[in-house]
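Workshop exercise sheet. Pairs work together: one partner reads the sequence aloud, the other fills in the structure field after running the prediction. Swap roles for the next sheet.
Pair: D.N. / O.F.
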Amino acid sequence: MDFTFTEEQQAAVEAAKAIFSDVAPDTVPSPALTPGAVSEDLDRPLWSRLAAADLLGMVVSPEHGGAGLDPVALCLVLRESARVLARVPLLETSAVAMTVERYAPRHTAAELLPRVSRGELVLTAASQGRTGHDPAERAVTARRDGTTWILDGLQTAVPWAHGADLVAVPAHTPEGRTVLALLPRTHDGLVLAAQYSTNGELLAELRLDAVRLDDTHLIDADGAWEWLRALLTTGTCALALGLGEAVLTMTSQYTGKREQFGHPVATFQAVAVQTADRYIDLRAMEATLWQAAWRLSSASEGALPAAGDIAVAKIWASEGVRRVVQTAQHLHGGFGADTDYPLHRYHAWAKHLELSLGPAAAHEEALGDLLAAHPLG
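Structure field:
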């Protein structure tokens, strides 16, 4: 096996590092001190720089102005974005764009994807359902009425929806199929209510009341929602990994300078053991992430469907990132709770990522169902 990243993937990482090197996690008010959202919009200047560096179209095919890279490259760039808590819907836009290219009618892809590559369109996805625990595709109904579709229902905790141009909304038909609606943010019958995440970012509750869409704004192809959900889940694991690595680096720097009894606390055995355990967590998060991303990129067969590898990656991401930030807070002592120090922001973002697309327990249940359906001979 060759675990080396390709030249194109490494080039994407280098471009991302150059862009994110100027991003500071403290550019918005602290979520601990802000009763509402820390900001009403995404980081538009950063979004423009990502577009100028061709990173918004990296997973779009050259036919539509992109680089045609795969989910592994996307995860590599997302990992870098999470190190600085970049406030941009890079995951959501890229995942929806890949789904549009793979499953939408050709004329829909030709209309949307070049604008995504140029940074003119911001995309997001409704993936949490009504409560964050039920399947997202069951939260909205879609039925035919002549030449149009009528959508009714509710989706909660939709990230970046207030600043997005299109929201990908899964819905179920009376026949039991799942379709994917590409819903404009401003549309008759659609109401966006403000919600707030643990990291202080503005989310949206989408209320759909007899929303009418034509076929050009709806993907009616088997597997479209499953593919989008797989991309979103795997990308969330990449974000958790990047955040966890930044936090462990921050912790090692602090404990290397902080002294007690005339010695750096990093030299104490109890501190060294805890940080070593968290390093092991990060390496497990990394290994399971690349396994999941590789399955998506290569469509390789395995003992279980790719959903099994994705579930394992999300279990490690959710549990691992929680343990990393908890240990960091403990080893920083009171300094970790100082709102002038960025660690509390990473803790808030970690909790958001831990629960996004389902906590570890939900993916353990999904993995159990897969094992039951595909006995390992």
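Discussion prompt: The mean pLDDT is 94. What would you look at next?
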